[in-house]
């Protein structure tokens, strides 16, 4: 299991994922927790692992080390207990007991906010979508909710200039944040990302996780790495969502999306002791849609128990 899973994570094979069946959601058992439940890499090392006595000690230790450094092991699972079939396809995300109903039955636009303090204050958990302005953020939102134009798409980078809240199933939010790096946006529309979006991250107590979107059709971009490093330094939980995994850029020297993802992951491993959760997606083919929603469900269900 260890060798096969390591190869699968370090060498993502896009073609093998296009028709991969989605796993069955696990039902979440009743429980109560008193922890803040900010989902981050720290939760993975919060409890000590217990080796399976049926495994050789060295193999169990190596498997646990691999799980801790390469996989996102959610609360409720020990690294020693992870098996290959528990890892969502096209990702490093382990499905745990907190995963539940991931279906989106209803979505409604709530409001646009000019400042973080104007955002809804009703204690519902939320996931923030963040990325470069042409990364496909609106397309991913529309794909997740299976409705066109819930989030307006545009060929002009930098169109989203507000914090937009969408209420899902009357119980949690998808938050569409302004994109960064939009060089073609008009001067009057540009903003100081540091004072605007960062203020939301640092003060939003209902934020479960940031979905940091990264364009897999192009080589790793410094601006994405800088954003990831800032989130990491401020202990803000995040999941890398690789978009446009179906696209192939022209040119003899152009790399495939899975090659760009591998290069990006290598850079992340140089700065993180544990690799944050990541998943491959495509708004065109639907790749990763159900898997991402399942991942979000287990983060949300754990957060709800605090």
Automatic annotation (TrEMBL):
Matches recorded under InterPro entries: G_ENGB_dom, GTP-bd, GTP-bd_ribosome_bio_YsxC, P-loop_NTPase
> Is the keyword DNA repair assigned to this protein?
no
- Which keywords does this Swiss-Prot/TrEMBL entry list? GTP-binding, Hydrolase, Magnesium, Metal-binding, Nucleotide-binding
| A Pfam family hit | MMR_HSR1
Annotated EngB-type G domain ranges read: 123-302
The cofactors named for this UniProt entry are: Mg(2+)
Q: Which GO terms describe its molecular function?
A: GTP binding; hydrolase activity; metal ion binding
The UniProt entry's sequence similarity note says: Belongs to the TRAFAC class TrmE-Era-EngA-EngB-Septin-like GTPase superfamily. EngB GTPase family.
Against NCBIfam families, the record matches this protein to: GTPase_YsxC (TIGR03598)
Q: Which PANTHER family match?
A: MSS1/TRME-RELATED GTP-BINDING PROTEIN (PTHR11649), PROTEIN, PUTATIVE, EXPRESSED-RELATED (PTHR11649:SF75)
Name under which the protein is recorded: P-loop containing nucleoside triphosphate hydrolases superfamily protein
């Amino acid at each position: 299991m260890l060798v096969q899973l390591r190869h699968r994570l370090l060498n993502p094979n896009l073609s093998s994922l296009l028709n991969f069946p989605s796993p069955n959601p696990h039902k979440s058992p009743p429980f109560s927790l008193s922890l803040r439940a900010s989902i981050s890499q720290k939760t993975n090392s919060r409890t000590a692992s217990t080796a399976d006595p049926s495994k050789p000690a060295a193999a169990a230790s190596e498997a646990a080390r691999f799980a801790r450094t390469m996989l996102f092991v959610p609360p409720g699972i020990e690294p020693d207990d992870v098996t290959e079939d528990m890892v969502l396809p096209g990702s490093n995300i382990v499905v745990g007991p907190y995963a539940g109903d991931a279906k989106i039955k209803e979505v409604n636009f709530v409001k646009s906010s000019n400042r973080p303090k104007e955002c809804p204050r009703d204690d519902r958990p939320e996931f923030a979508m963040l990325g470069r302005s042409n990364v496909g953020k609106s397309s991913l939102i529309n794909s997740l909710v299976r409705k066109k134009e819930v989030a307006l798409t545009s060929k002009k980078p930098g169109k989203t200039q507000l914090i937009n809240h969408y209420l899902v199933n009357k119980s949690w939010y998808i938050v569409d944040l302004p994109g960064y790096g939009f060089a073609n946006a008009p001067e009057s529309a540009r903003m100081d990302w540091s004072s605007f979006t960062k203020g939301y991250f640092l003060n939003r107590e209902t934020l479960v996780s940031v979905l940091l979107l990264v364009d897999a059709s192009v080589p790793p971009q410094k601006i994405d790495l800088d954003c990831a490093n800032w989130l990491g330094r401020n202990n803000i939980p995040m999941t890398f969502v690789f978009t446009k995994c179906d696209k192939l850029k022209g040119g003899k020297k152009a790399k495939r999306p899975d090659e760009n993802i591998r290069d990006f992951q290598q850079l992340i491993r140089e700065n993180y002791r544990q690799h944050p959760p990541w998943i491959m997606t495509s708004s065109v083919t639907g790749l990763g849609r159900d898997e991402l929603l399942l991942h979000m469900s287990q983060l949300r269900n754990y957060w709800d128990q605090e």
